[in-house]
Design a protein that fits this description.
The complex is a heterodimer of chains A (351) and B (500). Helices cover 61% and strands 9% of the residues of chain A. By secondary structure, chain A is mainly alpha-helical. In chain A, strand 1 (128-129) and strand 2 form a beta hairpin. Classes of the chains: A mainly alpha (351), B alpha+beta (500).
């Protein structure tokens, strides 16, 4: 075949373009650290990388959700542990009172102590996380126990028994302190409920309201501790019975020390049951917290796996690419050298 | 009878001189595109008889200067050129579309999609939080803007292609006109049997370029007219004579009355012949740059009109995506409530800066990737976002979790969940680009091979021309030497002998 200078030049140029093109691709890989720069470089890798990236970001969100859940539960755990301690203290007081001498001053001291401790329990029951009450099911904007005297803005039907720590007038009817309003009672508008009453909009109305956090694909965990309204209803009644009996004995001599002992002994059992309930709630919470811990560490493992998969999918093997680049560079160099020899001379140089 | 030797030598001198001219012309045009090297054809002149010693030669006569060209290769090249042109356009355009999608990157779809569901997940941990509601609204805006941007970019590209189409049609017309006028010049130059070398080179150049734009059939036929042979050249394109010897036809563009695809930009052109004949833009056998442009501009992936995955296909895929996605999400969002009151996503009307329509006015057939938007309700008051099944249950996460679950809803699209659908689009785009590139490369090597064959035949080679140069120079010198010798002989015989 007849070969002309022009053909040499065009072959040379094509060759050099190919060399440079290959080097350009390898260079782009080295600079970006990624195997592909556009989807068309390798659609399969691109699709897989996209899925893995989504999984990594999902994993991060799940992790942040487990952190939220942990914080919420830690808050709950602290409150439960305090409630348990306080109940324990009250119980001890009851034991002391049920066996010791009870002069007038002693009774007053005991009554004040118990009421003070009850206030502390209320505070723990109204503990909040990020502005949300933790023990009130979905109704996180409502406190478990009323902290101030509250006027009802709308009619409210009781779902569970409500113990009144003070005298309350409902629709003209007066209920004395210590009355327990049965479930189904309707509290009319403008009824004033005193501080320390269980919140009627919560009490008995938060059954099965478990707040679910997403901590994995189609996997959720309930962060809130339930049935606290029942426990608090029990506490408020037990305390109410104690304090009203003591108060009665202070004002009325017909109430004997034996009567008081009897009440203390009775409530001792109630407190034992309540302590058992709180312990159970604490145990449940502990189990959930350890599940969250487990999920969190599994998420961390998963993240490592996903990241390494993603890296395997889209990241270059630096050594390999570097060797490839060097090979290409050597080829390019030799091509340039050959080109410089082949296209410079014609016959004219020797005439 | 006398001085015959001088005449013979002179003819050699002239022939050598003519040869030097041809060589010098070849060298001068060594780098001229499409130039075919020319050779001087010469033969021995008719011999003289009757001098008693047989036939005596009378020197050399130059017959013609012809170009070295293989028309068979030309023809083959012209059947391969159109496919190369078509796929060159497709490779370029596919990579432009790819850049509009901006994948793979950390800023493209992955970011906005995960952002959207991250916002929901965050809100699910505290469904009454205003901060999280605003956060989710912003994520939703980014999500919708992502589609708006791609759709409008793609529409701009479609309009650019429309402009390219018009230019390409103009180029075809210019080439046709030019070829027709060259036909005339060639006919006039060749009527007495000479070959119009450089004019033919120029015409071949034009035909080569034309064959890159559109597939053509070229035919050159000989005709006897008044005792002279004239060559007639016809070029057929898309079933019509584009050039017929001294006549030519032109194409023209006309703004379409009805859109081919509903996603199309405004003012797209149709092509038609100026003489009124129909130009079939859907012709599956057509190829060339024009075909590449038409496929990219009109290809909607399915149907009779154009089954290539061009810009309308990608716009349509995005439109389908936002419609289906918005409908499923809105349905979940308004669950248990009046759907005319609640919507996450709607669309803007008029231009994209317009206000979005409300849930009540929502008509999913009106929704496109270009006008996709958050709903009027959320646009005006992000706090009005519904996050609970029952407003009194401030921390019931089930509503948000149900919404969040749509992320992995495999039923949402036939391609799978909302992420899979988009990945399918990206992969399709990548595969389309890769395929075009593969065709282009294959075609490139075919064309290159043929081009090399043509160069091998026709291209000037400097070294070769130098060889000829020396050859002709030597011939010239030799002829001059003969004249010089004859001169010496005549000097001796005429002057010296008669003058002694």
């Amino acid at each position: 075949m007849r070969v002309t200078n022009g053909m040499l030049v065009s072959t040379t140029l094509t060759g050099l373009y190919n060399n440079m093109n290959a080097m350009n691709k390898t260079y782009a890989q080295m600079v970006s650290g990624k195997k592909i720069q556009t989807v068309s470089d390798d659609p399969i890798i691109a699709g897989r990388a996209l899925k893995l990236k989504t999984s990594v970001l999902e994993n991060e969100q799940y992790k942040s959700n487990t952190k939220e859940a942990t914080s919420w539960m830690e808050m709950t755990e602290g409150a439960l542990s305090n409630i348990h301690d306080i109940l324990q203290t009250i119980r001890t007081k009851c034991v002391e009172a049920a066996t010791g001498t009870l002069e007038k001053e002693d009774k007053e001291v005991i009554k004040n102590e118990i009421e003070e401790l009850w206030k502390q329990i209320q505070e723990e029951g109204n503990v909040s996380y990020g502005g949300r009450y933790v023990f009130t099911g979905y109704k996180t904007s409502e406190p478990l126990v009323l902290t101030t005297d509250t006027t009802l803005k709308e009619e409210c039907m009781l779902e569970a028994d409500l113990y009144l720590p003070k005298k309350v007038t409902i629709g003209g009817e007066t209920f004395e302190k210590g009355t327990t309003l049965p479930a189904g009672t309707i509290l009319t508008v403008d009824t004033v409920l005193p501080a320390g009453t269980l919140n009627p909009t919560v009490n008995g109305k938060i059954t099965d309201q478990s707040i679910q956090y997403e901590i994995g694909v189609n996997s959720t965990i309930s962060v809130n501790t339930q049935k606290m309204d029942k426990i608090f209803s029990g506490i408020s009644q037990a305390i109410g019975k104690l304090s009203s009996k003591i108060e009665a004995s202070l004002n009325d001599d017909s109430v004997t020390t034996e009567d008081l002992y009897k009440v203390f002994n009775e409530q001792l059992e109630a407190f034992d049951d309540l302590l058992g309930d709180v312990s159970k709630a604490t145990t449940d919470l502990g189990a959930k917290m350890s599940r969250v811990d487990y999920v969190e560490s599994r998420l961390a493992d998963q993240k490592t796996t996903l990241k390494s998969l993603l890296s395997d999918t889209e990241d270059i093997d630096i050594e390999e690419v570097y060797v490839k680049f060097n090979t290409q560079y050597a080829t390019y160099q030799s091509a340039l050298q050959a080109t410089s020899k082949i296209i410079t001379n014609t016959l004219a140089d020797y005439l | 009878m006398g001085f015959l030797e001088l005449n013979i030598a002179t003819s050699g001198l002239f022939a050598a001189q003519r040869g030097l001219q041809v060589t010098s012309n070849n060298i001068s045009n060594a780098n001229t595109t499409g130039y075919s090297r020319q050779v001087l054809n010469q033969k021995a002149s008719s011999p003289l008889g009757g001098i008693g010693v047989g036939l005596t030669g009378t020197g050399v006569s130059t017959t013609n200067i012809s170009r070295v060209r293989d028309s068979y290769i030309d023809q083959k090249l012209r059947t391969q050129n159109p496919k190369l042109g078509e796929y060159t356009v497709k490779v370029t355009q596919n990579s432009i579309i790819e850049s509009a999608f901006g994948e793979p990157s950390d800023t493209g779809f992955t970011k906005v999609f995960n952002g959207l569901f991250k916002g929901m997940s965050q809100l699910s941990t505290d469904p009454s939080s205003d901060v999280y509601k605003i956060g989710l609204k912003e994520e939703m805006v980014s999500f919708t803007k992502y589609f708006n941007t791609i759709a409008s970019t793609l529409k701009n590209y479609q309009q650019d292609l429309n402009f390219d189409l018009k230019n390409t049609v103009n180029e075809i017309n210019n080439l046709a006109t030019h070829i027709q006028s060259l036909n005339k010049q060639i006919m006039e130059a060749e009527i007495y049997g000479d070959e119009a070398n450089s004019l033919r080179d120029e015409r071949d150049n034009c035909i080569d370029r034309l064959s890159e734009i559109i597939d053509i059939e070229v035919q050159e036929t000989e005709h006897e007219v008044e005792g002279n042979t004239i060559n007639k050249l016809t070029i057929k394109a898309a079933g019509q004579n584009l050039v017929d010897h001294l006549n030519y036809n032109t194409l023209q563009v006309k703004v379409r009355q009805a859109k081919l695809n509903e996603e199309d930009a405004e003012g797209l052109y149709d092509i038609e012949w100026s003489n009124g004949a129909r130009f079939s833009m859907k012709d599956a056998n057509m190829s060339g740059e024009l075909k590449g442009i038409i496929d990219m501009r009109d290809g909607c992936g399915t149907g009779e009109s154009n089954s290539y995955n061009g810009i309308p296909y990608y716009i349509k895929s995005l439109d389908n995506y936002v419609r289906q996605f918005a409908e499923t999400m809105n349905k979940q969002y308004s669950k248990g409530e009046d759907s005319s009151k609640y919507a996450l996503f709607t669309y803007t009307t008029g231009n994209t800066s317009g206000k979005p329509v409300s849930a009540a006015d929502l008509d999913y057939t009106q929704m496109t990737a270009s006008n996709f938007s958050i709903s009027k309700e959320l646009f005006e008051d992000p706090m009005s976002m519904r996050t609970l099944y029952d407003d009194s249950d401030a921390s019931d996460t089930s509503f948000m979790l149900d919404l969040l679950r749509q992320k992995d809803n495999k039923e949402m699209f036939k391609e799978g969940d909302p992420k899979d659908y988009m990945i399918a689009i990206f992969s399709g785009l990548g595969i389309g680009g890769k395929e075009a590139e593969m065709y282009q490369n294959t075609q490139k090597s075919v064309v290159q091979n043929l081009t090399n064959q043509r160069l091998s035949v026709s291209q000037v080679d400097i070294t070769e021309e130098f060889t000829y140069l020396i050859q002709y120079q030597q011939a010239y010198q030799a002829a001059a030497k003969v004249i010089n010798t004859m001169d010496g002989i005549y000097e001796t015989t005429l002057f010296k002998l008669g003058n002694f």
